[in-house]
Input
Amino acid sequence: MSQPNLKLAPPTDTGLRILDTLNSSILCLDSEGCITYVNAAGEALFESSASNLAGRRFDSLLSQVEPSSILSKLALDSIAFTEHEAVITLADGREIIANYSIYPLDGRTTGDEIVLEIRQSEHQAQFAQDELNQLQQQATQQLARGLAHEINNPLGGIRGAAQLLQRALDRPEWTEYTEVILSEVDRLQSLTSKMLVPGSKMQLTQINILEVLEHIRKIILAAEPDRIRIIRDYDPSIPGIMADRDMLIQAFLNIARNAVQAIEDSGEITFKTRVGRQFTIGQITHPLVVQVDITDSGRGIPHDLGETIFLPMITDKPEGSGLGLPIAQEIISRHGGTIHLHSSDCGTTFSTILPMEKT
Output
């Protein structure tokens, strides 16, 4: 039997170029079960180039030990077939969970070619985690509003005292410190006001995420000048995003302070920014997102706290309140984003994902 040649579309063929943008793996098989076409996602799934896959029997890509339902369905002359949550073991031993569909080409019930579409379910665990985060946020919101009410009252007194102190100071260089007090009080009053009103409208403006991180870096280094070293790994090409600046500062500041508390003696924290593409948050896939990773060199988070770390009052730090991370998650969620946790004995990374389109 002669092997068919894989005929890829020329660059001007819009239809096949569109197939290469899909997340689903698309394969065309001839009557002998040999591959005549595979898109870019298929190349990634089977970890082989289109030219190497051309002419190979599809069953050679699957495990010969663990049978797959795909092969039995391909043998049927059905009009079309779809199976959900199928366990597929590949020839190299990798196991994936996927939905797959079989379509006879041009609607033929028997004949030459069929189209096979494989859609991996790799985001399901993250869907479940995002849903859990949403439930946790509802509990956090009630507690945060109560705390915001209690915090809002003394802030007015602090501001008034700072203003009186500023008038009494006879050295201009000292007023720099009172300006910091007044600025932070105003920011906290704005933040608590938003937390007190359910569904209150955020003040969205175009902000530079790197400018926000630099502001936080200065705050952390001012408090821990000798103990903490901050490494910056920024992508300078990240465009501005629509966000509430004060709220975003509070979210990242809470995460950064958590990182500081995780370091017992001295250590380092890394601020890293990258652009992500086709990232799914909840049930929505965003074409572009910005990812901010804050990584510490601390002791890591105990495994039994991993799933509850975003609940209020949950902490493994003696000096921690258990409120910083839940508030950060609630703020990021209001911006349409999410926070993922990766922790080991070598440290912890909080990855904040924010959509780039207007929230």
About this structure: Residues 34 and 58 are 6 Å apart (CA to CA).
